Amino acid sequence: xxxxxxxxxxxxxxxxxxxxxxxxxxxxxxxxxxxxxxxxxxxxxxxxxxxxxxxxxxxxxxxxxxxxxxxxxxxxxxxxxxxxxxxxxxxxxxxxxxxxxxxxxxxxxxxxxxxxxxxxxxxxxxxxxxxxxxxxxxxxxxxxxxxxxxxxxxxxxxxxxxxxxxxxxxxxxxxxxxxxxxxxxxxxxxxxxxxxxxxxxxxxxxxxxxxxxxxxxxxxxxxxxxxxxxxxxxxxxxxxxxxxxxxxxxxxxxxxxxxxxxxxxxxxxx
Length: 270
Description:
By secondary structure, this protein is α+β, with helices and mostly antiparallel strands. The protein has 2 domains: about 5-145, Rossmann fold; about 160-270, Beta Barrel (Elongation Factor Tu (Ef-tu), domain 3), CATH 2.40.30. The protein is about 25% helix and about 30% strand. It has helices at about 15-25, 45-55, 95-100, 120-135, 140-145, 185-190, 240-245, and strands at about 5-10, 30-35, 65-70, 80-85, 85-90, 105-110, 160, 165-175, 180-185, 195-200, 205, 220-225, 230-235, 255, 260, 265-270. The strands form 3 sheets. Strands 7, 8, 9, 10, 11, 12, 13 and 16 form an 8-stranded antiparallel beta sheet that branches. A 6-stranded mixed beta sheet has the order 2-1-3-5-4-6, with helices on both faces. Strands 14-15 form a two-stranded antiparallel sheet. The chain is elongated and about 60 Å long. The termini are far apart.
């Protein structure tokens, strides 16, 4: 039974997510569809890349991943189908693919889009479903699409680094208003080199140690730790860090209702 993850920015308030699944099952009735999320913020590439990247790495090789995110940000000529480290990824040619992978895909083809048909999420799904069916029937990725394409690339959002500091962008705020920063544990430890540190945000809020989980600090206290995806997370035990500290994701407006929202977190090493 083939596995397919589904990630979109279209929400679940109407029929569309169900219709997308129906289209997929028409071509592959034994498909096991697993929802990642349908609540991504439109045009927030850093957020989408973080969510998709963090999910993909937990699935077995051979899994298919359909990402209907920002599909009309560019006027599409084709849909991308990539094969990378044993995974198959379908998405729009809008730069998201390289942000997710943090490198160029090992193999990528273009799935031609019929110019006479109105483009929609269901149309993209239909194109991907046909390719998935062909792959399941034994064709290679080179046989189901056009390899002679030049894909759009966007670079993943990386922290700024100095000799004694790192500055990261807030890339995601979860349902509990915990704040995720684009500083991963490997980068942090490489630059830290055993030194003490101070995590500074909202001008004067400071955290100078890493916790293992929320219960490491008393209720209502702030803490920082590296989450299950390996990224720096700032939280409040039994509280809402983003709302209390005025923290906001980098791609959203810095000023909302005349309130200033902070989008960066700096780490100083001593």
